[in-house]
Amino acid sequence: MQIALIGAGPRNLAILDRLIQKADSNQALTINIFDPYPVGGRVWNPFFENNQTYLMNTNPNQVTLFNDYDIGQRRGEDLTPNLLTWAQSYALPFLKQHHEYPMAYREEVLSLTSMTAYASRGLMGVYAAWFFEEILNNCPSNLSVRFHQVAVKSLLEANPGFNITTTDYNHFFADKVVLALGHLDAELSEKKKDLEKFAKEKGFHYYPASHPAENDFSSLNENDTVLVQGLGLSFFDDLLSLTAGKGGFFLTKKNGSLVYHPSGHEPHLIIGSGSGLPPRAHGLNQKGANELYQPRFFTLERMQRIAKDCGGHLPYNTFRHVLDQEMTYKYLTNQVNLLDKLSDTEREEILDFLENPKNWQHVNEKFHLKLDVHISWEKEATPSRDVTSLSAFRKFFVQHLKEDIDSAALGNDKSPLTGAYDILRDVRGTVRTLYNDRLFDEDDYQKLLTDFKLFDTQLSVGPPLIRTRQLLALIKAKQVTIAGPNFSVAHDQQFFTATDRFDEHYQGTALIEARLGRPDFRTAKSPLLKSLRQHGLIVGDNRIINQDGTAPLANTIKVDLKTFTVYNKENQLIPNLFVTGVPLEGQSWFTTVIPRPHVQTIAFTEAATVVNQILNQ
Predict the structure, then answer these.
(1) φ, ψ dihedrals at 53, nearest 5°
(2) Phi, psi of 132 (to 5 degrees)
(3) Which run of H or of E encompasses 417?
(4) Which of 81, 141, 205, 390 is the most exposed place for a label (fewest CB within 10 A)?
(5) Which whole-number Å values give the CA distances from 274 to 70, 108, 113, 127, 189, in the listed order?
């Protein structure tokens, strides 16, 4: 059997690992893997210089590539190291044997000693290369695996099977194909083409949404004013390149705060976004590799029971109420656990009292406490809605960062606020099941894709704590100007321009869209996706229709989510053609998750489903 895995990122590596584990010893398999980037894929490319300093957004003890869906008994823990334990054991010998990797990675693994630290994105790429080498060394003789560092240009049905052409015009045949393409660059819209044209005419610089590690900021200097649109994870990457990457440096004070010392070569940054605020920082990690919060109220069984009682649909307002209730319980119990004047008996009595939500408003009176029992999680996600002037907003922004830093420093388990935010990360599997099982009606799916997506992003998809500290230091060093919410960019005759909610106007000589593009196979630059669309082998998902007749998931490739088999333009399944990961964002909930050990992570559950289809059809 000939199998093609297109994309060599974590998802297809998980599929490869499971194929090797599950293939019958009497069956000959040839597995060809294609990716224009090294094993590990584009995001983790260890040869991008920026990836030596850009951080992963997950602690290294919570990252693995070894597919543990149901094979834990077949491997010892020492043979399936997570990223942290690998860095402390196998990494240095591997790097000493592979001189192609920059010396920076040897220095990094020597310093990566704690589960509270963060690894660089490039080191994740080195881990992927080691992982690939490791599983090939243990590959049975009936399996042949080859990696081709080249992009696939086209894929056509051969009836049966598929013909594959790469961009260097080599041809391959496959009986079965899995596409795991990740985030792809999009063709520029007319507005973005106009921005690009303007930049060329003026000798300015325009950076559209893309992978931040690939941005070349070498031409930007102290003579530039840069408008930065977006305050999410890509923003923090660009921020580092435009400051410390220009020769400045941070010093840590005794109290843990940072001071930035500029080099004088940094461009000035004007930063803004729709919400106006960056997402909350990740808390100092206090959780083990597979340690997830265990809900008291927001359990899968309870939510499924509510849906059953409501005629098969889970009302969005009920979903949010129970989830908010779970976060409030964590918020209150963590406040109690931080009180140092309580005896063990008193603490236990208060915690028992808090198990009933009806008691929450009475806990202060009963136990003579001063707990904050009034919390609005919606306000936590959009705290600046009522700020009415730019000067007030800028003061609020700085105070918001300080409070977020203090909260995150208490830890992702013990902090009242940050510990509650972290629940959103730990219950994603439950949310995904409710979402994928279609337990919401069409209107509520729209709320999940908009309102809840923004809520979840602001509270749980933030940067490592160090990045928020760096942002605060840069503001204090006057390297950054804070713009208000509703930050909108354009250009006039002379400069890039921006406005905000307070009708303030800004000008710049460079513009950065600090974000990844929205996943949309219809506008992707990928020659492969263009070929698949042209031949009708992929189509947008039209199974959910809004009241206005639009399909909110039309940007995603339509698949059978039970098998990940692709639908063609005639709405027929194409046997043996599968798609997983980012191109399904929206059909499946929150696909951009790095594999985590021993928690049935989405990459491994998807891999189990796909491999079962490949080997049993």
Answers:
(1) -115, -25
(2) -60, -45
(3) helix 416-426
(4) 141
(5) 43, 36, 38, 36, 19
**CA dist., res. 378 & res. 12, Å (int):** 37
Helix (H) / strand (E) element for 18: namely helix 10-22
Residues 617 and 575 sit within 8 Å (Cβ to Cβ): yes
Q: Which of 247, 271, 234 is nearest to 55 (CA)?
A: 234
Alpha carbons within 13 angstroms on the beta-carbon side of residue 501 total 21
The angle subtended at Cα 83 by Cα 80 and Cα 88, nearest 5°, is 90
The token duo for 519 is 């996943």
What pairs with residue 326 in β-bridges? none
User: Which amino acid, residue 455?
Assistant: F
Candidates 454, 437, 435, 455; CA nearest to 445 is 435
The two tokens of residue 500 are: 């905000």
How far is Cα 519 from Cα 442, in angstroms, rounded to an integer? 21
pLDDT for residue 73 is more than 50: no
CA dist 62 → 8, 53, 426, 432, 596 (Å): 20, 19, 12, 19, 5
Residues 6+ apart with CB under 8 A from 74: 21
pLDDT tens for 495-554 read 999 999 999 999 999 999 999 988 999 999 999 999 999 999 999 999 988 888 889 999
HEC profile of 95-110: HHHCCCCCHHHHHHHH
